[in-house]
Design goal:
Number of helices: 13
Shape: globular
Order of helices and strands: HEEEEHEEHEHEHHEEHEHEHHHEHH
Length: 329
């Protein structure tokens, strides 16, 4: 009885923070998002044995079944959270774009749900799902997907990354009955975050985040898709005037030399999407070699699987935080 009451209390207080295309904030795999804090409430708030949770999100209102038997997942952050929590009801994912650490979902044990921007409605319908979970890139397909099964829009709001991520994990944990495990996982991540912030507070170095893509580079600052480095972990930005944009701010190597960051964080998009090239060869040129980041050995190449392809999940956020922990020590 105590356990049931605890579960009900968790459901009643939780909120999901969603993101959607076309606005200022971005989520993993999305082209943009709005600052929105929807709520999730049980089908019957007086019944601890409720069979569904009503999720009010940016694209609508969804009665999501508790412990759904078959789930289609498009958002890789959600997928890696469910994987870490040991949820075994996933039946279909977009297999062509999977990060390597989630490659088990590319096997014939799972159906291919289509592309990130082009869901295969016939295949999804054939999977007969009880729940579909999407994020920004599938937002235009939302209405069509709701005709197949209850569909939830779930992404991470970069304007409030940590609270949004935490709320999403707790919501998924409630839907799939994994509350205790999720609480343990979140506590471990928060402990590492606290350690990183403590390490950062002892230095006056400022950081710059860049995305390298086939010889071109873009910069990202606070509030951006990679902004948790500044917003959550406390690394001061060498330039806090950068626009918040999905594709970043196009910059030159002269810009990097002028800003002279103490930390330079590099995400190799080319490597993430399977292209050829080496970001290190592009980035570590004569101009960048004059920066403090290069001289002090503080250029860090972040794993693009977690930073570019997924993010926002229990596995990816833990890895992302530990990447920065290692970089600032």
């Amino acid at each position: 009885m105590k356990k049931s009451l605890s579960m009900m209390m968790l459901v009643l207080v939780m909120a999901i923070v969603m993101a959607a295309c076309g606005n200022n904030a971005t989520n993993n795999g999305a082209t943009g998002g709005a600052t929105n804090t929807p709520t999730a409430t049980p089908e019957n708030s007086t019944d601890p044995a409720a069979t569904s949770v009503k999720v009010t999100h940016l694209l609508g209102e969804t009665n999501a079944p508790i412990n759904p038997g078959k789930v289609v997942v498009f958002d890789f952050g959600v997928l890696d959270t469910l994987d870490r929590l040991g949820v075994e009801s996933i039946v279909a994912v977009p297999q062509d774009s999977l990060p390597a650490y989630l490659e088990k979902y590319a096997s014939s044990d799972y159906m291919n749900a289509g592309g990130l921007k082009e869901p295969d409605f016939e295949a999804i319908d054939g999977a007969d799902p009880d729940l579909i979970i999407i994020s920004g890139r599938q937002s235009e397909a939302y209405e069509e997907l709701t005709k197949i099964a209850p569909t939830i829009y779930m992404g991470v709001d970069n304007a409030d990354y940590l609270n949004s991520f935490t709320s999403n994990v707790e919501t998924l944990a409630t839907i799939f009955g994994k509350e205790e495990q999720a609480a343990t996982e979140l506590a471990a991540i928060n402990e590492v975050i606290a350690n990183v912030k403590a390490n950062v507070s002892t230095t006056d170095k400022k950081g710059l985040i860049i995305l390298a893509n086939e010889g071109k580079i873009s910069a990202y600052g606070p509030g951006s898709r990679f902004g948790l480095i500044h917003d959550v972990l406390g690394v001061p930005a060498v330039d806090d005037t950068l626009d918040i944009s999905t594709h970043g701010n196009e910059i030159t190597f002269e810009y990097i030399a002028e800003k002279n960051p103490g930390y330079l964080f590099v995400i190799d998009r080319t490597a993430a999407v399977g292209g050829e090239g080496n970001a290190k060869d592009t980035v570590e040129n004569d101009l960048v070699k004059n920066t403090d980041a290069f001289k002090d050995g503080k250029i860090t190449y972040l794993d693009p699987q977690y930073w570019y392809l997924s993010g926002g999940g229990l596995i990816s956020v833990e890895k992302m935080v530990k990447d920065i922990d290692a970089a600032v020590k």
